[in-house]
Amino acid sequence: MISVKNIYKSFGDRPVLHGISADFKNGENSLVIGLSGAGKTVLMKCLAGLMKPDRGEISFDGRNFCSMNNREQQAVRRDIGMVFQGGALFDSLTVQENVVFPLDRYTDMTFEEKVERANFCLRRVNLENANKLYPSELSGGMKKRVAIARAIANNPKYLFCDEPNSGLDPRTATVIDELISEITKEYDITTVINTHDMNSVLQIGDNVVFIYKGNLWWRGDKHGIIESENPELIEFLCASELTKRLIR
Q1: Is the model's pTM score more than 0.85?
Q2: Is residue 161 within 8 Å of residue 33, measured between CB atoms?
Q3: What is the 3-state secondary structure (H, E, C) of the chain?
Q4: Does domain 2-79+156-247 have CATH number 3.40.50.300?
Q5: What is the pLDDT of residue 248?
Q6: Distances (CA, A) of 189 to 108, 171, 180, 181, 214
């Protein structure tokens, strides 16, 4: 579980996060939603250790990341998998080499063990026999699946996904949602997803956190979100044709 307590973050004199507190549990799909500029990405970067909050605590299974020394933080980072918005695959590397990359960095596996693990992860995301392909030869959905395979290669306890459905057609987006959800529950991972996609929220949102102007404004699940009477959340939801129809 990841526990966040009173996180504040500013850039110069511009405050971005105002005392955010939330829990993200193992085996749940936790989705963070909000308008652009609300602070979602900054919150995720703080959670993933890519950015240091000004104040507050971020605990990984009871371990306060903010008070750790560099060596202790590196140990936690080995337990983190990250799926970036654009996939962030290395164009000059094959699919297999992309998936093996975190194993090269964080493990002392033999080459054969790394290839075996890469093959397992690629099978898990339904990309058998894609090892020798390059990112330029993949569709958008395939790139996201490779990114997920790379993110889980090192058996992470914590998985962060930044807009995993960005740029995908609705059918492929649903496939990616289902894949992330299955992996989260199968391996009991603590998964946090930043998204604007209300289809994702209504399909896999076990825990939904709504950020409004840097504040935690509402939290619940995919069932409670439609019945919420929070005016800012309703306004946000009505920007989506899907939820607009459901609310009506």
Answers
A1: yes
A2: no
A3: CEEEEEEEEEECCEEEEEEEEEEECCCCEEEEECCCCCCHHHHHHHHCCCCCCCEEEEEECCEEHHHCCHHHHHHHHCCEEEECCCCCCCCCCCHHHHHHHHHHHHCCCCHHHHHHHHHHHHHHCCCCCCCCCCHHHCCHHHHHHHHHHHHHCCCCCEEEEECCCCCCCHHHHHHHHHHHHHHHHHCCCEEEEECCCHHHHHHHCCEEEEEECCEEEEEECCCCCCCCCCHHHHHHHCCCHHHHHHHC
A4: yes
A5: 54
A6: 23, 25, 10, 10, 26
Q: Are 32 and 192 within 8 A, CB to CB?
A: yes
Residue 198 amino acid letter = M
What's the confidence (pLDDT) of residue 245? Answer: 57
- Encoding tokens for residue 55? 């104040």
Structure tokens at 244: 């607009």
Dump pLDDT digits (tens) for 135-191: 999 999 999 999 999 999 999 999 999 999 988 999 999 999 999 999 999 999 999
Domain layout of the chain by residue ranges: 2-79+156-247, 93-147
83 strand-pairing partners: 161
Residue ranges, the chain, pLDDT below 50: none
Q: What residues pair up with 32 in beta bridges, in sequence order?
A: 194, 209
What are the tokens at 149?
A: 């395979």
**Contact in structure between 84 and 193 (CB atoms under 8 Å):** no
Gap between the Cα atoms of 135 and 138, Å rounded: 5
Instruction: State residue 187's pLDDT score.
Output: 94
pLDDT at 247: 55
- CB proximity list for 52: less than 8 A, separation 6 or greater: 46, 66
Q: How far apart are CA 140 and CA 142, in angstroms?
A: 5
